[in-house]
Amino acid sequence: MLLCVAVVLMGLASCGGASKKSEAKSEEVKECCLPIGLQLYSVRDDAAKDLKGTLQKVKEMGYDGVEFAGLYGNTPEQVKAWCDEIDLVPVSAHVPLADMLADVDKVIADYKTIGCAYIAVPYVTEERRPGGEKFGQMMEEIRTIGQKMKDAGLILLYHNHDFEFAKTESGEFGLDYLYANVPAELLQTELDECWVKYAGQDPVAYLQKYSGRSPVVHLKDYYAAGEQKEDPYALIGLNEGEKKENKSFEFRPLGYGVQDVPALVKASKAAGSKWLIVEQDQPSLGKSALECAAMSVETLKKIKAEGACCEGDSHANGEGCGQH
How far, in Å, CA of 9 to CA of 252, rounded? Predict the structure, then answer.
């Protein structure tokens, strides 16, 4: 179920029935809305205990699809069967670069079986980051893997953090250098808008910059206050040994942090994106991971109902219905 269905229902209620013109406008709204998926890393503890039950809850919240971060011991065939039964699209998967280097053919076979269209490099270790001794090697590795993915009918994505915004010797950000040196036919973007903004860049501008190369967008919100003295990566189980309690930074459900979420939704559509993927690395605000996921999708439902998914607000309103 696309979130923009809320627009249609609200239009019917406020107008007392849809005329042919308003029905046509509702169809326009459907066309300008993007489906929403959840990165299952957001609810990983629940998924590890009961993947099928978690998929069912995700569907009931109103998500259209999911992005995997492991299969939690389940076979690809079983996961595909659950997605079919529950009617969730298996959009994509985050697969460690080390796993792809070890056996890319198995990675491709597993996720083709499930039905994923995209596979993303989710994170790279320090030596493969801009300025690291293996940064150049990593680009060659990605080029090779990207060709394998293309030959198999899949699309390789790169999911960024903030460390890709370190400058290279050319003066470019590492992320831009990567995309400039690996052709789009072998590598597409999966911009994580939390880390783009955290790095001091404009998330909307980055979507515009990679228009046509951003099929999957990570929508992620956060809160930050004052000087960042601690390590936000410690909050997601990385950089072990760092202090994990960081009062000046926390991940938030969409609409509860610093991001301009309506602008990101609209920019994603304008950039030709195919999917919006919600991710929240750790729950916050005293809520569980599943509750946070539900809060995020409710924010997106409201944004879609207000017409932000369209180029102009006029598409969101039925004839004579006024502003919802």
Answer: 28
Q: Is 262 helix (H, G, I), strand (E, B) or coil?
A: helix
User: Global pTM?
Assistant: 0.84
Q: What is the pLDDT of residues 136-190, one digit of tens each?
A: 999 999 999 999 999 999 999 999 999 999 999 999 999 999 999 999 999 999 9
Beta-bridge mates of residue 92 = 67, 118
Mark 289-322 as b/e (b = at least 16 C-beta within 10 Å).
Answer: bbebbbbbbbbbbbbbbbbbbbeeeebbbbeebe
CATH number where 96 lies: 3.20.20.150
Instruction: Confirm if 124 and 138 have CB atoms less than 8 A apart.
Output: yes
Element (H, E) at 243: none
Confidence of residue 24 (pLDDT cuts 50, 70, 90): very low
User: Residue 65's pLDDT is what?
Assistant: 98
In which domain, by residue range, is 100 found? 35-221+259-308
Judgement on whether residues 322 and 212 belong to the same structural domain of the protein: no
Residues 114 and 206 in one domain: yes
Query: Which DSSP state fits 41?
Result: G
Cα R_g (the chain), whole angstroms: 20
Burial class (CB in 10 A: 0-12, 13-18, 19+), 159: buried
Reported as a single tens digit per residue, the pLDDT across 74-100 is 999 999 999 999 999 999 999 999 999
Distance of CA 300 to the CA centre of its chain: 13
What is the SS3 assignment for 97-121? Answer: HHHHHHHHHHHHHHHHHHCCCEEEE
- Give all strands (DSSP E) within the chain, no chain letters: 36-39, 65-68, 89-94, 118-121, 155-159, 188-190, 216-219, 221-224, 249-252, 275-278
Token look-up 């079986």 returns 113
Nearest to 7, CA basis, from 306, 305, 313: 305
Q: Which residues contact 229 (CB under 8 A, 6 or more apart)?
A: 248
Residue 21 and residue 104 share a domain: no
Question: Which tokens hold the place of 140?
Answer: 């060659």
